[in-house]
Amino acid sequence: MPELPEVETSRRGISPHIVGKVFKNVIVRQPKLRWPVPDNLPALLIGQTLQSVERRGKYLLLNCANGSLLLHLGMSGNLRITNPELAVGKHDHLDLVFADDTVLRLNDPRKFGAALWAEQPSQHPLLAVLGPEPLSADFSGEYLQQRAGSRRLPIKSLIMDSHIVVGVGNIYASESLFLAGLHPERPAGEIDLMGYQRLATAIKTVLQKAIEQGGTTLRDFTNAEGKPGYFQQALRVYGRRDQACIDCGEPIQHLKIGQRASYFCPVCQH
DNA sequence: CGAACGACCTGCAGGC
DNA sequence: TGCCTGCAGGTCGTTC
After folding, report:
1. What is the structure's pLDDT at A2?
2. Hey, what CATH topology would domain A141-264 get?
3. Which nucleotide is nearest to A74 (CA to C1')?
4. What pTM, to 2 d.p., does this model score?
5. What is the phi/psi pair of residue A232, to 5°?
6. What residues does each domain of chain A span?
7. A217-247 burial, b for 16+ CB within 10 Å, e for fewer?
8. Cα A174 versus chain centre, distance
9. pLDDT bracket for residue A234 (50, 70, 90)
Protein backbone atom coordinates (compact mmCIF):
# COMPACT_ATOMS: atom_id res chain seq x y z
CA MET A 1 0.00 0.00 0.00
CA PRO A 2 2.34 2.69 1.09
CA GLU A 3 4.44 5.26 -0.57
CA LEU A 4 5.02 8.56 1.18
CA PRO A 5 1.55 9.99 0.48
CA GLU A 6 -0.14 6.90 1.90
CA VAL A 7 2.01 7.03 5.03
CA GLU A 8 1.27 10.72 5.47
CA THR A 9 -2.42 10.01 4.99
CA SER A 10 -2.23 7.32 7.66
CA ARG A 11 -0.48 9.74 10.00
CA ARG A 12 -3.16 12.36 9.55
CA GLY A 13 -5.87 9.77 9.89
CA ILE A 14 -4.70 8.20 13.13
CA SER A 15 -3.28 11.23 14.99
CA PRO A 16 -6.53 12.83 16.15
CA HIS A 17 -7.70 9.53 17.62
CA ILE A 18 -4.62 8.74 19.69
CA VAL A 19 -2.41 11.75 20.43
CA GLY A 20 -2.51 12.73 24.09
CA LYS A 21 -3.77 9.33 25.20
CA VAL A 22 -2.08 6.86 27.55
CA PHE A 23 -1.02 3.39 26.41
CA LYS A 24 -2.98 0.82 28.40
CA ASN A 25 -1.92 -2.36 26.62
CA VAL A 26 0.28 -3.58 23.78
CA ILE A 27 -0.59 -6.87 22.10
CA VAL A 28 2.05 -8.43 19.86
CA ARG A 29 0.51 -11.37 17.99
CA GLN A 30 3.27 -11.77 15.44
CA PRO A 31 6.74 -10.58 16.44
CA LYS A 32 8.37 -11.77 13.23
CA LEU A 33 8.16 -8.75 11.00
CA ARG A 34 11.04 -7.35 8.93
CA TRP A 35 12.92 -7.23 12.22
CA PRO A 36 11.76 -8.85 15.46
CA VAL A 37 9.36 -6.68 17.43
CA PRO A 38 11.20 -5.94 20.70
CA ASP A 39 10.18 -8.25 23.56
CA ASN A 40 9.96 -5.36 25.96
CA LEU A 41 7.75 -3.17 23.76
CA PRO A 42 4.75 -3.48 26.12
CA ALA A 43 6.89 -2.55 29.11
CA LEU A 44 8.29 0.46 27.25
CA LEU A 45 4.88 1.79 26.19
CA ILE A 46 2.34 0.92 28.87
CA GLY A 47 1.71 3.93 31.08
CA GLN A 48 3.35 6.34 28.62
CA THR A 49 1.46 9.21 27.02
CA LEU A 50 1.58 9.45 23.22
CA GLN A 51 2.85 12.97 22.67
CA SER A 52 2.83 13.20 18.87
CA VAL A 53 2.87 11.21 15.64
CA GLU A 54 5.50 12.30 13.15
CA ARG A 55 6.60 10.96 9.78
CA ARG A 56 10.15 10.59 8.52
CA GLY A 57 10.26 9.17 5.01
CA LYS A 58 7.96 6.17 5.17
CA TYR A 59 8.43 5.68 8.90
CA LEU A 60 5.88 6.81 11.43
CA LEU A 61 7.24 7.93 14.79
CA LEU A 62 4.96 7.56 17.80
CA ASN A 63 6.71 9.83 20.25
CA CYS A 64 6.64 9.36 24.02
CA ALA A 65 8.69 10.91 26.80
CA ASN A 66 10.97 7.85 27.02
CA GLY A 67 11.47 7.28 23.29
CA SER A 68 9.62 6.56 20.07
CA LEU A 69 7.92 3.62 18.47
CA LEU A 70 8.96 3.44 14.82
CA LEU A 71 6.43 1.90 12.47
CA HIS A 72 7.06 1.00 8.83
CA LEU A 73 4.31 -0.42 6.64
CA GLY A 74 6.50 -2.26 4.13
CA MET A 75 4.64 -3.22 0.97
CA SER A 76 1.35 -4.35 2.43
CA GLY A 77 1.02 -2.77 5.85
CA ASN A 78 -2.05 -0.91 6.98
CA LEU A 79 -2.97 0.97 10.15
CA ARG A 80 -6.45 1.51 11.37
CA ILE A 81 -8.31 2.77 14.38
CA THR A 82 -10.60 0.20 15.92
CA ASN A 83 -11.78 -0.96 19.34
CA PRO A 84 -11.37 -4.08 21.47
CA GLU A 85 -14.85 -5.35 20.51
CA LEU A 86 -14.00 -5.73 16.85
CA ALA A 87 -12.80 -9.17 15.83
CA VAL A 88 -9.11 -9.69 15.24
CA GLY A 89 -8.40 -10.68 11.64
CA LYS A 90 -5.71 -12.51 9.80
CA HIS A 91 -2.39 -10.61 9.79
CA ASP A 92 -3.42 -8.27 12.62
CA HIS A 93 0.07 -8.38 14.12
CA LEU A 94 0.07 -5.54 16.63
CA ASP A 95 -2.51 -3.72 18.74
CA LEU A 96 -1.76 -0.55 20.67
CA VAL A 97 -4.57 -0.14 23.19
CA PHE A 98 -5.15 3.24 24.80
CA ALA A 99 -6.78 4.02 28.14
CA ASP A 100 -10.14 4.85 26.54
CA ASP A 101 -10.11 1.55 24.57
CA THR A 102 -9.16 3.15 21.28
CA VAL A 103 -7.03 0.62 19.43
CA LEU A 104 -4.42 1.32 16.76
CA ARG A 105 -4.04 -1.93 14.84
CA LEU A 106 -1.28 -2.92 12.43
CA ASN A 107 -2.22 -5.40 9.71
CA ASP A 108 0.50 -6.55 7.30
CA PRO A 109 0.04 -9.71 5.20
CA ARG A 110 3.56 -9.79 3.80
CA LYS A 111 5.31 -8.87 7.07
CA PHE A 112 7.77 -6.52 5.37
CA GLY A 113 6.79 -3.84 7.84
CA ALA A 114 8.47 -3.09 11.15
CA ALA A 115 7.79 -2.00 14.71
CA LEU A 116 10.96 -0.86 16.46
CA TRP A 117 11.93 1.19 19.47
CA ALA A 118 14.33 4.12 19.48
CA GLU A 119 15.24 6.27 22.45
CA GLN A 120 16.40 8.95 20.03
CA PRO A 121 14.81 8.38 16.65
CA SER A 122 17.11 10.66 14.68
CA GLN A 123 20.05 8.59 15.93
CA HIS A 124 18.50 5.26 14.99
CA PRO A 125 20.62 3.49 12.34
CA LEU A 126 17.68 3.17 9.93
CA LEU A 127 16.71 6.83 10.19
CA ALA A 128 20.12 8.46 10.54
CA VAL A 129 21.11 7.52 6.98
CA LEU A 130 17.97 8.79 5.26
CA GLY A 131 18.09 11.52 2.63
CA PRO A 132 16.05 14.72 2.82
CA GLU A 133 12.28 14.93 2.73
CA PRO A 134 11.23 15.54 -0.88
CA LEU A 135 8.78 18.28 0.09
CA SER A 136 11.37 20.21 2.07
CA ALA A 137 13.54 23.06 0.79
CA ASP A 138 16.60 20.83 1.27
CA PHE A 139 15.50 18.82 -1.74
CA SER A 140 16.27 20.59 -5.00
CA GLY A 141 17.66 20.09 -8.48
CA GLU A 142 21.06 21.25 -7.28
CA TYR A 143 21.01 18.72 -4.47
CA LEU A 144 20.07 15.87 -6.80
CA GLN A 145 22.76 16.74 -9.31
CA GLN A 146 25.36 16.95 -6.57
CA ARG A 147 24.37 13.51 -5.22
CA ALA A 148 24.28 11.99 -8.70
CA GLY A 149 27.85 12.98 -9.40
CA SER A 150 29.08 10.84 -12.28
CA ARG A 151 27.17 7.72 -11.32
CA ARG A 152 25.92 5.50 -14.15
CA LEU A 153 22.92 4.27 -12.17
CA PRO A 154 19.56 4.66 -13.95
CA ILE A 155 17.88 7.84 -12.76
CA LYS A 156 14.83 5.91 -11.65
CA SER A 157 16.95 3.82 -9.28
CA LEU A 158 18.65 6.95 -7.95
CA ILE A 159 15.44 8.69 -6.93
CA MET A 160 14.10 5.49 -5.35
CA ASP A 161 17.16 5.26 -3.10
CA SER A 162 16.09 6.46 0.35
CA HIS A 163 19.64 7.54 1.11
CA ILE A 164 19.29 10.09 -1.69
CA VAL A 165 15.71 11.18 -1.04
CA VAL A 166 12.99 9.51 1.01
CA GLY A 167 9.49 8.62 0.00
CA VAL A 168 9.74 8.16 -3.76
CA GLY A 169 8.39 4.66 -4.37
CA ASN A 170 7.92 2.69 -7.54
CA ILE A 171 4.70 4.34 -8.67
CA TYR A 172 5.68 7.95 -8.04
CA ALA A 173 9.14 7.42 -9.51
CA SER A 174 7.61 6.54 -12.88
CA GLU A 175 5.10 9.35 -12.61
CA SER A 176 7.72 11.97 -11.68
CA LEU A 177 10.04 10.98 -14.52
CA PHE A 178 7.19 11.28 -16.98
CA LEU A 179 6.36 14.77 -15.71
CA ALA A 180 10.00 15.77 -15.97
CA GLY A 181 10.38 14.29 -19.47
CA LEU A 182 13.27 12.05 -18.41
CA HIS A 183 13.79 8.46 -19.57
CA PRO A 184 13.94 6.20 -16.49
CA GLU A 185 17.13 4.49 -17.68
CA ARG A 186 19.09 7.70 -18.21
CA PRO A 187 22.38 7.39 -16.34
CA ALA A 188 22.12 9.74 -13.38
CA GLY A 189 25.47 11.37 -14.08
CA GLU A 190 24.40 12.48 -17.57
CA ILE A 191 21.46 14.62 -16.59
CA ASP A 192 22.06 18.36 -16.57
CA LEU A 193 20.98 20.87 -13.95
CA MET A 194 17.86 21.88 -15.84
CA GLY A 195 16.81 18.25 -16.01
CA TYR A 196 17.35 17.83 -12.30
CA GLN A 197 15.42 20.99 -11.55
CA ARG A 198 12.50 19.68 -13.58
CA LEU A 199 12.77 16.35 -11.78
CA ALA A 200 12.88 17.81 -8.27
CA THR A 201 9.87 19.96 -9.09
CA ALA A 202 8.04 17.00 -10.62
CA ILE A 203 8.63 14.85 -7.52
CA LYS A 204 7.31 17.59 -5.26
CA THR A 205 4.27 18.13 -7.46
CA VAL A 206 3.39 14.46 -7.75
CA LEU A 207 3.75 13.74 -4.03
CA GLN A 208 1.95 16.89 -2.96
CA LYS A 209 -0.95 16.16 -5.27
CA ALA A 210 -1.16 12.57 -4.06
CA ILE A 211 -1.25 13.72 -0.43
CA GLU A 212 -4.04 16.13 -1.27
CA GLN A 213 -5.95 13.27 -2.88
CA GLY A 214 -5.66 11.32 0.34
CA GLY A 215 -2.90 9.11 -0.94
CA THR A 216 -5.28 6.68 -2.53
CA THR A 217 -3.67 3.38 -3.32
CA LEU A 218 -4.12 0.81 -6.03
CA ARG A 219 -6.48 -2.01 -5.15
CA ASP A 220 -7.72 -2.42 -1.58
CA PHE A 221 -8.02 1.21 -0.57
CA THR A 222 -10.17 2.22 -3.51
CA ASN A 223 -12.38 -0.82 -3.21
CA ALA A 224 -13.02 -0.15 0.45
CA GLU A 225 -13.95 3.43 -0.31
CA GLY A 226 -16.06 2.38 -3.24
CA LYS A 227 -14.80 5.38 -5.19
CA PRO A 228 -12.37 5.66 -8.02
CA GLY A 229 -9.31 7.04 -6.28
CA TYR A 230 -6.44 9.23 -7.19
CA PHE A 231 -4.85 6.65 -9.40
CA GLN A 232 -7.56 5.95 -11.88
CA GLN A 233 -7.61 9.60 -12.90
CA ALA A 234 -4.15 10.73 -12.11
CA LEU A 235 -1.73 7.95 -13.02
CA ARG A 236 -0.23 8.99 -16.29
CA VAL A 237 2.12 6.10 -16.99
CA TYR A 238 2.23 3.62 -14.10
CA GLY A 239 0.38 0.41 -14.98
CA ARG A 240 -0.54 1.79 -18.44
CA ARG A 241 1.60 -0.53 -20.55
CA ASP A 242 0.61 -0.39 -24.25
CA GLN A 243 -1.99 2.30 -23.58
CA ALA A 244 -1.75 5.65 -25.34
CA CYS A 245 0.42 8.35 -23.80
CA ILE A 246 -1.86 11.12 -22.57
CA ASP A 247 0.36 13.73 -24.23
CA CYS A 248 1.37 12.21 -27.58
CA GLY A 249 -0.65 9.02 -28.05
CA GLU A 250 2.37 6.74 -28.34
CA PRO A 251 1.96 3.40 -26.51
CA ILE A 252 3.43 3.47 -23.00
CA GLN A 253 6.38 1.11 -22.70
CA HIS A 254 7.30 -1.22 -19.87
CA LEU A 255 10.74 -2.19 -18.60
CA LYS A 256 12.31 -3.79 -15.57
CA ILE A 257 14.76 -1.46 -13.94
CA GLY A 258 16.48 -2.72 -10.82
CA GLN A 259 13.93 -5.55 -10.63
CA ARG A 260 11.02 -3.12 -10.56
CA ALA A 261 8.33 -2.52 -13.14
CA SER A 262 8.85 0.80 -14.88
CA TYR A 263 6.60 2.65 -17.30
CA PHE A 264 7.43 5.50 -19.63
CA CYS A 265 6.61 7.18 -22.92
CA PRO A 266 9.39 6.63 -25.45
CA VAL A 267 8.50 9.87 -27.26
CA CYS A 268 8.03 12.24 -24.32
CA GLN A 269 10.88 11.00 -22.15
CA HIS A 270 14.59 11.18 -23.03
C1' DC B 1 33.22 2.82 -3.58
C1' DG B 2 29.15 1.61 -6.87
C1' DA B 3 26.00 -1.58 -8.97
C1' DA B 4 23.31 -5.83 -9.28
C1' DC B 5 20.70 -9.11 -7.09
C1' DG B 6 18.77 -12.21 -3.53
C1' DA B 7 16.09 -12.23 0.43
C1' DC B 8 12.13 -11.55 3.42
C1' DC B 9 6.37 -13.17 2.95
C1' DT B 10 1.54 -13.62 1.46
C1' DG B 11 -2.14 -13.13 -1.87
C1' DC B 12 -3.91 -12.90 -6.25
C1' DA B 13 -4.49 -13.26 -11.34
C1' DG B 14 -3.84 -15.91 -15.22
C1' DG B 15 -2.62 -20.05 -17.89
C1' DC B 16 -3.13 -24.94 -18.37
C1' DT C 1 -11.40 -27.14 -9.23
C1' DG C 2 -6.45 -27.30 -8.63
C1' DC C 3 -1.62 -26.56 -9.52
C1' DC C 4 2.04 -23.66 -11.11
C1' DT C 5 4.15 -19.29 -12.34
C1' DG C 6 4.78 -14.62 -12.05
C1' DC C 7 3.82 -10.40 -10.04
C1' DA C 8 2.82 -6.75 -6.26
C1' DG C 9 3.21 -0.35 -3.05
C1' DG C 10 9.94 -1.67 0.20
C1' DT C 11 14.58 -1.87 1.24
C1' DC C 12 18.35 -4.22 3.63
C1' DG C 13 22.35 -7.14 3.24
C1' DT C 14 25.53 -9.72 0.39
C1' DT C 15 28.43 -10.25 -3.45
C1' DC C 16 31.14 -8.94 -7.26
Report:
1. 87
2. Helicase, Ruva Protein; domain 3 (1.10.8)
3. C10
4. 0.95
5. -55, -40
6. 4-128, 141-264
7. bbeebbeeeeeebbbeeebbbbebeeeebee
8. 15
9. confident
